[in-house]
Amino acid sequence: MAVLKLSVVSIALLLCGCQIDYLAHSAYNQSKILRARKPIEKVLADPAVNEETKRKLRLVLEVKKFAEEKLGLSSNRNYLTYVALDRDSVSYVLQVAPFNELSHYEWDYPIVGKMPYKGFFNKDLAKEEAKKFPEDKWDTYIRGVSAYSTLGWFHDPVLSSMLKYSDHDLVNTIIHETVHANVYIKNHADFNERLAMFLGGVGMKEFYTQKEGIDSKTLKDVANEEVDEKTFSEFISRELDALKKWYKEHKTFTPEEKKARLDEIQTHFKKEVKSKLKSDNYSKFAEIKLNNALLLTYQTYMYDLSDFQKLYEKKNHNYKATLDFCKSLEKTEDPEKALKTAI
User: Fold this and answer.
1) Of 184, 182, 195, which is closest to residue 76 (Cα–Cα)?
2) Domain spans of the chain?
3) Whole-model pTM over 0.70
4) DSSP codes of every residue in 285-335
5) What own/partner pairs with CB < 8 Å and gap ≥ 24 does 211-216 have?
6) pLDDT per position as a tens digit, 36-53
């Protein structure tokens, strides 16, 4: 997930109003990460580094080369260095939504425009920001982030937080974040994330097809996960559409009435979806505390990806052609509409 971070070099040009402290926080901590980078080749030669870390770093270099040579992605010299963090998450993202509406609260940033989240390197600062939104008017959600892209502004390192992923999820993440560095449409965060989700998954499968062949065990495991992903995506897309309709029809309601409506979503999940899942990737959905801000993360990452699939098929399953078409939408005011027109 791409989270805005700024450098000391650029901060003097970007300081504005009440964001000064925030930008300074981002710049300082981003610069700490950049200063902590070590070339992966040196890490691989270090006897103090454990073999599992080295194995995954070799995998990163392998997929990076594949993404450049076979997928046509420019790496911008990303993922040639490594940073060992002292925490599980590199940053923490705050998302906010109105209490009575399924829509993003957006922050305005220099260069990248409007974004439906605000990232902090310190969780307590994210919590402090969340307190600025009264609970009777806003829903808030804070999540840890293991990886992010600086959208090509800097040479992003591999972070130790990324290495906790399974191999195929790590491959997916490297390609996903590299897509962000290649294609970014200002003010359209949901479109950017769904595009990276789709191309990250497709690129990962192409990588393992070449590496292990069509009978790849990894791809068989991924196939089961994709069945679950499709099942859950179809479910959550329907539920989000229904919830938007409910909010429009119910102009006023109590917190208790809202909770009952959100509980219905989890009841539907337990009755209609849970027994169909082949993995436990979404099993905790029935227990988490839902609110509008959290549900919007599913809209961002899990909402219907079929338009991208149709485009990929129309481009004869050509990854580079699909990527290039999406890149051509960077100046488009409504990329979702342009994509639907194209397919």
Assistant:
1) 182
2) 8-187, 217-302
3) yes
4) GGTS---HHHHHHHHHHHS--HHHHHHHHHTTT-HHHHHHHHHTTTT-S-H
5) 211/62
6) 999 999 999 999 999 999
